[in-house]
Amino acid sequence: MKSLISHQARVLNFNFMEAQKYTRYKLNEQQQKRFVQMLIENSKMPTLFERHIYFINFIHHKQIQPLYINLLRNPLERVISDYYYSRYMCTVKKETCFRMKRAYINETLDDCVMRNEHQPHVCISLEHGVHSAIAFFCGQSSYCEGYKTAQRALAKAKSNIVKYYILVGVTEQLFKTFSVMEKVLPQFFSNIKKTYLRRKKKRVWVTPKEYRIEPSNRTREVIYKALKYERDLYKYVKRRLQQQFDEITSTKESNKIRA
């Protein structure tokens, strides 16, 4: 995706900023303030900034709120991928261990679920190297990451999406996502579908197969149930995306009829 956006930036003449740090999602108040100031100072022209970070309310820091966009992946596939990617980055790449406890690094997801039979949600928590998708939309408050406060975090995440996110796409519906991108932010994403087809490349940030152990069907079922609130968010985002897509296609049909 970064390669695709870099191409768009060159063609459409906007500023594309890539973060140098990707592993610190949660910031304290001072870090948020510095982050907001940095972004404002470097956005004198139309700018698209890309980073993995929990939602920050710029208005809280007395600045104009930027438009947020994001992509969401199927929750079950995301957490399985996250589980092994965090271990790969820690033990093989030796770049970061995120906030994972070292005692769990060599544990497979199957073993974790067996060990935590009565509380499987533990296996998809920060201490096991898995981040909550809800927290990225909920924000920097402590309750955004907690399992016991997940329902509250989900409500806040949905509220933020409505207020601040012009688009939340779905990786399993990429062309539908691109269609909405082209419509709502043409200055950044005009013709992105054609560009994607022309420049289609393999994903760069992917865990090699030898470092990913596919979980059993039983583990997948257990984790699926534990992802109740993540699945709720995913369905909500898919419905919203569909509504945006339907509005675009109905407008196109209406224009054809008038013509």
From TrEMBL:
Q: Which GO terms describe its molecular function?
A: sulfotransferase activity
Where does the UniProt entry say this protein principally localizes? Golgi
**Lipid biosynthesis keyword on record:** no
Which SUPFAM superfamilies does the annotation name?
A: P-loop containing nucleoside triphosphate hydrolases
Q: Which domain of life is it from?
A: Eukaryota
Does this entry carry the keyword Glycoprotein?
yes
Q: GO CC annotations? A: Golgi membrane
Taking the record's annotation, the residue ranges forming a coiled coil are none
Identify its membrane topology class.
Answer: Single-pass type II membrane protein
Q: Which UniProt keywords apply?
A: Glycoprotein, Golgi apparatus, Membrane, Signal-anchor, Transferase, Transmembrane, Transmembrane helix
InterPro entries linked: Heparan_SO4_2-O-STrfase, P-loop_NTPase
The record's section on PANTHER family has: HEPARAN SULFATE 2-O-SULFOTRANSFERASE, URONYL 2-SULFOTRANSFERASE
The protein's name in its UniProt record:
Uncharacterized protein
**What does the record give as the organism's lineage?**
Eukaryota, Metazoa, Spiralia, Gnathifera, Rotifera
